[in-house]
Amino acid sequence: MPSRVRHLLLTAATVAVAAGLAAVTQTSAQAVTCNAKASLHDAGGALRGQAITLCRGGAPLPGEPTPIHVVDDSGVVQRLDPVTGEWRAVAGGTGTITYTCAGTATNTYRTVNTSAGKASTPLTTACG
């Protein structure tokens, strides 16, 4: 084999191996994982519910940690009807939902993240 052809073949093989190593060492974009959340707390005369989804992953900027994305979802604050056992919406919105208490009767409430079907832990409090 002439030396010029041998040199071209060796050069091509070296480039192919180097390209293969570069492909192996590059990190691929992280998969995005999401977790829906619904929460509710007593804010003294009002209830504050929150319906959000937290997503982690994706392609971070160079030198940055894994990105976290917060999505404000639609949600409702619901009150439990003690007679029928059904949950009835008393306030709704996107992200943070506020229900202003209309008295001091003890009731049970929850927030539902309607975008994801996720409900908070029920909260029993003096809020009519």
From TrEMBL:
Keywords: Signal. InterPro entries: TAT_signal (IPR006311). Residues 1-18 form the signal peptide. It comes from the Bacteria. This is Ig-like domain-containing protein. It comes from Saccharothrix xinjiangensis. The lineage of its organism: Bacteria, Bacillati, Actinomycetota, Actinomycetes, Pseudonocardiales.
